[in-house]
Design goal:
Shape: globular
Structural class: mainly alpha
Largest sheet: none
Low-confidence stretches: 38-52, 301-313
Distance between the termini: 40 Å
Mean pLDDT: 77
Strand content: under 5%
Radius of gyration: 27 Å
Number of helices: 22
Length: about 550
C-alpha cells in the first residue's frame, strides 16, 4: 500500500518525534484495513458500506479535481508572471478552506474517537505514538484531497513555468494540509477546554452549517467581487500579508516562477516551510498528552454521573418542550396531531444530520437572494426578481419536507405499528405543521423582511400570496410523493431517483410564479387571489390528513 510505503521511507522522522515506529506502523495499517472492512466506517460523508467506500471516495476526489481544475484554469491561465500572486493566493485559500472544512466536518468523529485510548493505551503504547498514528491516518486522506484539488494547477504551473515550479506547488499544497491539521487540533483543544461532549458536538454541527452557508454564499459572492481587473493587476505587498497562510504559499511559488528573491519572498518561504513543521513539532511535544487527557475527560463526562450541567440541560430541554407544547396546542386540532407536532419539533432540534442537510439549504437561499438583488443590470435588478426569490425559496423548504421521513434510528418506527393509530394522516399533518411553523415560517419571515426593505412595503400582498402558494405547493408535493411516517426510513431507502417529481414541482412552481407576476398588472389582483390560495391550502391539508394506512409505505 502506497501510504505504508511512504511511511516506511520516513522512519527517521517518526523516531525523532518520539514514536515507536513498529507500533505506529501496525496501528496505521490496522486503521486503514478497518476502513475497508467495516460495514460502516466513521469517515464522515465517505462512511458508506465497505463495498462502496473506495469508489465513493474516488468519485469525490474526481469531483474535487474537476472543481480545482476549473479554478486553476480560471485564475492561472490569463495572468503573466508578475501578476500571479493574487490568483495563487485564491488557489491556496481554496485548498486550505476545503481541507479545514473536511477536517472539522467529515473527520471530526475520527479525531474525537476515544476508542483507541481504551483499547491501546492500557498496553505498552505511548500516547505520542497513538496520537501520531491518528494524525498519519487522517493526513493520508487529507493529502489525497489536497492533491486532487491541486493536480490540475500543478500540471498547468509545470507546463507554463517549469517542473521546479510545479514540484514546489505540490509541496506547498501538502504543507497546507499539514498546517490545517495543526490549526484544527488547536481549534478542538480550545473547544474541549470550555465545552462538554454534547456541547462540543453541537458546536461542530453548527460550524458545519455555517461553513456550508459561507461556501455557498462565497460561490456567489467571489465571482462578483473579483473581476478580471483584480486578477490581472499587480499586487503590492502589505505587512498583514505575513499573517495570511495562503499568501505564504503563494509568495513561495511566485518566488520561483518570476524568479525573485527579496526579503518579502524569503519571509514568505520561511513561514510556508517552517510553520507547518513547527506546528507538527509543537503538537507532538506539548499537545499530545493534553489531547489524550481531554478525550478521556470527555468520556468521563459522557457517563451518567453528571450534576450541574445535566440540571441545566434538563432545564433548557424543559423550556423547549414547553414551547413545543404551546405551539402544538395552537396549531393542531386533536391529540394525535398534537403529539406528532411536538415529536417532530423535538427531533428536528436534536437530529444533527437533519439540521446539517436542511439548515445550509435555507441559509444558501437567503444568501442567494441577497447577492442576486445587488447585481446591477442583471436579472437581480428586474421587477420580477423578488417574486422569483419568494417562489424559489419554496424549493429549499421542500428539501426539509423530504428529510422528514429519514432517520438513522428508523428501526424504532415499529412503534407506529404497535400504537393504536387509526388515522396516520393526523401524524403526517402534525409533522408537516411542525416543519411549517419551525422552519418555513421563520425562513419566509426573514426573506419577507429583506424583500419589503429592498423593494418597498407595497409588496406585502405579493409576500403573503407567495407564502400561501408555497404552502399549496408543499402540500401538493407531500400528496404526490410516496408517504412515509416521520423518521421511519433509512437514507439508502430513498436513494431512488426523484428527478421526475423535482422537475414537475419546479415546472408547476414556475407556472404559479408567472401567474402571480401576471396578477401584479391587475389592480388588487394579488389581494383577490389570496383567499383562493388560502382555501386551496386548507383543502389540500384536509386531504393530507385523510391519509390511510393503505397509502403509507413503511421503511
Amino acid at each position: 500500500m502506497l501510504i505504508l510505503w511512504l511511511l516506511d521511507r520516513c522512519q527517521p522522522l517518526w523516531r525523532t518525534l518520539g514514536a515507536d515506529y513498529g507500533q505506529l506502523r501496525a496501528i496505521v495499517q490496522v486503521k486503514l484495513m478497518m476502513d475497508n472492512r467495516r460495514s460502516t466506517i466513521t469517515l464522515g460523508r465517505y462512511g458508506k458500506a465497505s463495498a462502496e467506500n473506495n469508489s465513493n471516495f474516488t468519485r469525490t476526489l474526481g469531483l474535487y479535481a474537476f472543481i480545482g481544475g476549473l479554478i486553476s484554469l480560471a485564475m492561472l491561465a490569463a495572468p503573466d508572471k508578475d501578476r500571479l500572486f493574487f490568483p495563487l493566493t485564491l488557489q491556496f485559500s481554496y485548498i486550505m478552506a476545503l481541507c479545514a472544512m473536511t477536517l472539522i466536518s467529515d473527520f471530526s468523529s475520527v479525531i474525537l474517537d476515544s476508542s483507541d485510548n481504551q483499547i491501546i493505551l492500557p498496553r505498552p503504547v505511548s500516547s505520542r505514538t497513538l496520537w501520531l498514528a491518528r494524525v498519519v491516518h487522517i493526513t493520508s486522506y487529507l493529502f489525497a484531497i489536497a492533491l486532487s484539488l491541486s493536480v490540475v494547477a500543478i500540471l498547468f504551473v509545470s507546463y507554463r513555468f517549469g517542473a521546479l515550479a510545479g514540484l514546489l506547488f505540490l509541496a506547498m499544497s501538502l504543507l497546507s494540509a499539514v498546517l490545517m491539521v495543526f490549526l484544527t487540533n488547536i481549534f478542538y483543544l480550545l473547544l474541549m477546554r470550555f465545552t462538554s461532549e454534547e456541547k462540543l458536538r453541537e458546536v461542530i454541527n453548527y460550524f458545519q452549517i455555517v461553513m456550508a452557508v459561507l461556501f455557498y454564499g462565497g460561490y456567489q459572492f467571489l465571482p462578483r467581487l473579483i473581476g478580471e481587473q483584480t486578477l490581472n493587476q499587480a499586487f503590492a505587498h502589505q505587512w498583514w500579508h505575513y499573517l495570511v497562510p495562503p499568501m505564504w504559499m503563494a509568495g513561495t511559488v511566485e518566488a520561483v516562477i518570476r524568479p525573485v528573491l527579496d526579503s518579502t519572498h524569503l519571509v514568505f518561504a520561511l513561514l510556508a516551510v517552517f510553520t507547518p513543521i513547527a506546528g507538527l513539532w509543537f503538537m507532538n511535544r506539548f499537545l499530545t498528552t493534553d489531547f489524550t487527557q481531554k478525550l478521556s475527560s470527555i468520556d468521563q463526562e459522557s457517563q451518567p454521573a453528571q450534576t450541574t450541567q445535566t440540571t441545566f440541560s434538563q432545564r433548557t430541554q424543559s423550556n423547549k418542550a414547553n414551547w413545543a407544547e404551546r405551539l402544538s396546542t395552537l396549531f393542531t386540532g386533536n391529540t394525535l396531531e398534537r403529539a406528532a407536532f411536538a415529536f417532530t419539533w423535538r427531533i428536528t432540534g436534536r437530529d444533527r444530520k437533519f439540521k446539517l442537510k436542511t439548515y445550509p439549504q435555507l441559509g444558501f437561499g437567503l444568501a442567494y437572494v441577497v447577492v442576486m438583488s445587488f447585481r446591477g443590470s442583471s436579472f437581480g435588478s428586474t421587477g420580477f426578481f423578488y417574486l422569483f426569490a419568494l417562489y424559489f425559496a419554496g424549493l429549499y423548504v421542500m428539501v426539509a419536507q423530504y428529510q422528514l421521513s429519514i432517520s438513522d434510528s428508523y428501526r424504532a418506527s415499529w412503534i407506529y405499528g404497535s400504537a393504536p393509530i387509526q388515522n396516520p394522516g393526523d401524524v403526517l399533518a402534525g409533522s408537516l405543521k411542525a416543519l411549517i411553523v419551525k422552519l418555513m415560517t421563520p425562513f419566509y419571515s426573514l426573506l419577507a423582511i429583506y424583500i419589503l426593505y429592498r423593494y418597498g412595503i407595497d409588496k406585502i400582498s405579493d409576500v403573503l400570496l407567495a407564502f400561501s402558494n408555497s404552502l399549496v405547493m408543499l402540500l401538493s408535493a407531500a400528496l404526490l410523493s410516496v408517504r412515509h411516517m416521520p423518521f421511519s426510513v433509512a437514507q439508502d431507502a430513498l436513494k431512488q431517483s426523484n428527478t421526475a417529481r423535482s422537475l414537475l414541482t419546479s415546472f408547476v412552481l414556475g407556472i404559479v410564479g408567472f401567474s402571480h407576476y401576471g396578477l401584479t398588472y391587475i389592480p388588487y389582483g394579488t389581494w383577490i387571489a389570496l383567499p383562493f390560495s388560502m382555501l386551496a391550502c386548507g383543502v389540500l391539508l384536509r386531504q393530507y390528513k385523510q391519509t390511510g394506512w393503505e397509502q403509507i409505505r413503511m421503511g
